[in-house]
Predict the 3D structure of the following.
Amino acid sequence: PPPPPPPIHHHSLHFDGQDDYVLLPLLRGVEAVSMWVWIDSVQPSMNTSGPQGVYLLDARFGASGGYFASGGIGAVWESMFVNNTQVPLHWSSFASDQWMFVHLESRAPINDNVNFMSRVTDSSAAPVGCLKGRLAEIHMWGTRLERNQQLVVSQGFDQVLLPDYRLAYYMLEEGTGGTAFDSMGNYPTGSIMGASWHDNDTPDQMGWKPRAFISPPPPAP
């Protein structure tokens, strides 16, 4: 028999909590965001940089209440699920030092640029509110998801909805460089500012199975 294929290497981005973040381009009609995220228990800038501590994400221009931070949650957000369980819309609902599948749903569609792992700032050279942790992938949805749909997405079977409903999918599998590509092909690339690539600590390597292609489908007859 032929030798087995080489193992698949999946990547994640590490953020140092000082000046690292991801900026996605202008997205229109966002009603939900899903991501794999790891939040370190020790934050270098916790409650010292920015008005709301450290930021998981922050809508950049139009959605003034689009932030989600350790010191407050913007009015845009209505509900949150962690590992497919609905939890209070509060920073304390997050665990630390472990991967989490986080799904946020908004009260109304968001049309905005979005920072992940930092607060929006006018100076890309001096970001504030930077969160120390990791990201593995980001889904931007044009609709809310049912609970069973969230479960399927977290397990990696991303054909859960018609393509029209998923606006963008940043897999964060580039492995090098400062660019994040939308694998849906709908939106321009995102910018990775300072974060470092790693390929040995993604959710699937720690007991989760976030992407369908980890177990490829059988060959066609």
